[in-house]
């Protein structure tokens, strides 16, 4: 009995000691040793107590643990892991500099730590790509491309070759929030989708959130594509570039003040149009863009960054038709450490998307765009080893220029016309916690409050019974209503105001060190709408704000997943099921005209949408052979019912496929490092054909057969399935140790077996046989490419 009492006393004293043990905070920043770039998502892991954290978007980490002596492991894919023992008795600031594996002689690789952190974190539905992976993926015309790389991931599809934007989990392209150094990018494509606007040489980190979206993000329903540019090399002057068949790029970076300040300037341009005059072709199609960044580290607690992007596309036919569009963004940021537990970031952001059109053969020019000014202040508060808080505010003032017609010839007969500018303000505040309940259970929960105000404009139409669309019972069709009058407002007036609470929740439960299950729920509100009745957005499409006749879109998304690290991270498996319910998703009445329409509310109806599916991602992360297999089985549908018992709605009030519904989406990406000179890469893609409509009959007019389309069968047919195989080989010549110049050749073949994928199907009467026929338009056959990349 006495023995039992002694054991109980010893156990009690040990427990009390652990409970009362003082805790200390260790914090710091993790850098790339070669250039002093901060690294995002680095694992800082303490194996003795099975706990750890990851660095934030600026390379900062903080963790609070009991006093003592511990092994610490700092690891990041592609870098040699740092292992050391550290004694902690007081709060400690410790920075780390990681060395790339290729630079290290004695490699210590413990990549499983990263997988363990990923399995334990409640964050799910996130895909991350680094610049090295993106550059390895074969793409059309040999240009490495972020958007094309994302399409190889589960749940992400495109509208086809030559189509801009991308679709996530059955959502529209305008439902993706695209951020470049926190600035909103409204158009992510060059040359109508052939290239993305993101120069791969400039990009440091890419993360795509498809679900379980953190509370700091808002304003879009489907996804968040968060892209961070490099900061510039603060140790050495460096030049990187590439020369391809249709475009070239150049990046210059270096220190302004060693170890404290650096600059970066990167540019790209295409030049294929310069060769067209050799073939008596006066057409032109080219793009160029420019990225720049300056940062200054005042001390350990204060960093300032200024980053910019400017890009422009020009497409012209004999100077009689010239189309130009592009993005401009500027972001001034201040990172400040209030303490070793409180990290803050203040950003002032300007973003502009412009679209111009010259129709010289008609005699006028067209100009439109959208501009916003954004102030955001974000905080990360590392309270202790079990609780982290994120909170902040975000305010965006937006000006919409729907379009202006400007005559450019006196004899054109065109009358100048300016569509009415629109104004809005979107404010948001958020609070979110990451809470470790136990060793096995972690929650991430929070709420975002958003408020959207449609500000006054010069004129706003009024309609009878407030219905901008009317149903013609005689002809059984929807028609645009005739305005009954107009209202006039001052700029400070409030036309409409919307407020929404957007709760976010996700959790992770650890089954063992290598396996977890996760679940998430998020509500999102979207107040901006891209007006487009094509499958893929075009520069002519116009953004419009929610208001008196257009309600904000609201999303509820649920997801559950199973995650497993296999063989200490050599392989990983991610499976997720999701369901999305969307309210107030607009669609267009039959025959809707969206171009230069000042009464856009007269051609749209409110409905709802849903999407659901299963995603599988299996990856091989280590070894000479790497890659992944991705498969998505999903549906994306829309319902636009009648507003009363006398109206049929769209598609007779039944569910119909959205233009971006892809039942099956299958992709394989593989890379093989044969030796230090040769690396081979390939990817295969298969997607169900996108929905469309085929004629259901025909009638004859003056000897011509005219196809008939059924207005009550929306998106009832499909284009043929899309599939292709791409391959590439990278040759890295043996380096001359006495030379700084390093180069590599990349040889590629896009669409190896020459699949003629259908971009569209048109129906016409054959001029010889006078029979109706379907004509398929395909963008690419087999496309070889060669690119020379260099670095010195």
From TrEMBL:
GO BP: siderophore transmembrane transport
Domain of life of the organism encoding this protein: Bacteria
Major location (coarse): membrane
GO function term, MF aspect, one: siderophore uptake transmembrane transporter activity
Keywords: Cell outer membrane, Membrane, Receptor, Signal, TonB box, Transmembrane, Transmembrane beta strand, Transport
Membrane topology: Multi-pass membrane protein
Ranges where the TonB-dependent receptor-like beta-barrel domain occurs: 295-752
SUPFAM superfamilies, sorted: Carboxypeptidase regulatory domain-like, Porins
Signal peptide: 1-22
Ranges for domain TonB-dependent receptor plug: 125-220
GO CC annotation: cell outer membrane
Pfam families, alphabetized: CarbopepD_reg_2, Plug, TonB_dep_Rec_b-barrel
InterPro entries: Beta-barrel_TonB (IPR000531), Beta-barrel_TonB_sf (IPR036942), CarboxyPept-like_regulatory (IPR008969), Plug_dom (IPR012910), Plug_dom_sf (IPR037066), TonB-dep_rcpt-like (IPR039426)
Localization of this protein: Cell outer membrane
UniProt family annotation: Belongs to the TonB-dependent receptor family.
Protein's name in the database: TonB-dependent receptor
Species: Polaribacter haliotis
